[in-house]
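To start, an entry.
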Amino acid sequence: MLKLFRPLGFVPLILSMATLGCHAQVKADPAGPPIQIGVKLSPEMARRVEVMLRSRSSLPLESVVTVGVPTASEVPGYDRVAITFTNNGKTSNALPFLISADGKTLAQFNKFDMSVDPRDKVSSVDRPARGGPPSAPVLIVGFDDLECPFCARMHAEIFPAVTDRYKDQVRIVYRDFPLESIHPWALRAAIDANCLGAASTPAYWNYVDYVHAHASEILDDDKSVPKAYSKLDGLAMDEGARQKLNAVDLAACVTKQDSRKIRASIQDGEADTLRVDATPALFVNGEKVDGVVTLDELYHVIDQALIAAGQTPPPAPTPASPAPAATPLPPATKPGS
């Protein structure tokens, strides 16, 4: 598997085939002989590379640019050269550049692995699903935080609108991504939801639906997190009773609060292949959709995924009748009036 690098912010993603030198008259090139694999660049050529990079970026003057020894590349006429940037004692990862054999052109080459179907890069294995069967042409995997108000809004819009429009063409799965630093009970809710999901898909979704719809009520006025935990655990046990699940096994799971699967899900989301750093984050057959989007925007992404899968998207929903104009509110009372 090819690991994709993430360039530093002060280095442009692409240096577009920049000419390193141009001379009006014929004379000896002070940069020395052409580039050779395994041979260190001459000081003059290394200087040309450094000056070109500095002219195309905002490198601090005190930064140090280190040009590696050329190695063979996959591009005819170009050799690969690794360059690092050091500033304030910190050195970047080596970034790969290409330099032409005649030493006149520098470029940055990014190589991306397309051997994996984008749909397969986000696992939905052993997760409770909604909508279509495993063979559904479109898979939506959402990274969800049960305490996130934006996730709650997205959740409310996705269901039932998406499942109602696409029926069995779309299968929906949630992965856990609780943001513990800002949401004190999100991890607890994710664990309890997974305790239910291990025994019953309907129980899992009923719990997720309820918590998203009533998240503002989980913390009481005194903002007691232990009370929130107790409330979440009670909701899980109540749902287990409605679904006639084994109460002893469910209680043991809720009491244990094993967070390993949740943390593995977070780690998967944070990996370079997905780069989830906020919620909600949806992947529609592998295409990332960040944040709260409109239904029309989500419909567009799903329709394109269906077309790519050789399926015909359903007709666009009929626009709803406009709501009657609201009665205007009286002017606000100003202080002192």
